[in-house]
Amino acid sequence: MKTKMIWGNLVSRDLQKTIQFYTDLGFKQNGQETKELVSFVFGENDFVINFFARKRLEDAVKGKLVDANNENEIIFSLSANSVEEVDLWYKKIKEIGGTIFSEPENFEVGYTFGFSDPDGHKFNFLYWPGM
Fold first, then answer.
1. Where does residue 121 fall: left (phi above 0), alpha (psi -120 to 50 degrees), or beta otherwise?
2. Contact by Cβ (8 Å): 114, 65
3. Scanning 96, 105, 123, 126, which has its CA 20 to 30 A from the CA of 27?
4. What pTM, to 2 d.p., does this model score?
5. Which parts of 5-127 are beta strand (E)?
6. How far from chain centre, in Å, is Cα 117?
7. Rounded to whole angstroms, how far apart are CA atoms 60 and 31?
8. For residue 127, how many other CB atoms are within 10 A of its CB?
9. Residue 85: which residues within 8 A CB-CB, separation 6 or more?
10. Alpha-carbon gap, residue 111 to 39, rounded angstroms
């Protein structure tokens, strides 16, 4: 057996803020949003992250969700083509009011910084030579 796709499902406290944040970063919506869901595609392989209204995602997981501003269990890494591109993403995140939780730094052979979206979901942009 082999899976066909994988995607992430996260919670959003305010779908319109989520739409504005990811649209401002230049990511494209995956289909049309509803009152309970908006999806965006990331990367060359169109990795999908769905952002659900809290009640809808709680119903789907049959339980309570963490507050990503206080607790985390995942960080999505977004690859960049160069150190300069990482710095451009850093500037863009700051321009649109994203939260930087880790300033740009060299990491082993790469270069990275970390940010949070309006709901506290953590991401980092990373340049890694040869990736």
1. beta
2. no
3. 105
4. 0.90
5. 7-12, 28-29, 37-42, 47-53, 75-79, 99-107, 110-116, 122-127
6. 7
7. 20
8. 21
9. 125, 127
10. 28
Query: pLDDT per position in the chain (131 positions), as tens?
Result: 988 888 999 999 999 999 999 999 999 999 999 999 999 999 998 999 999 999 999 999 999 998 898 988 899 999 999 999 999 999 999 999 999 999 999 999 999 999 999 999 999 999 999 88
Residue 27 per-residue DSSP state: P
Total count of residues recorded for the chain: 131
Task: Kindly state the tokens that stand for 115.
Answer: 């940010």
Question: Position 1: which residue type?
Answer: M
The answer to whether the beta carbons of residues 15 and 33 sit under 8 Å apart is yes
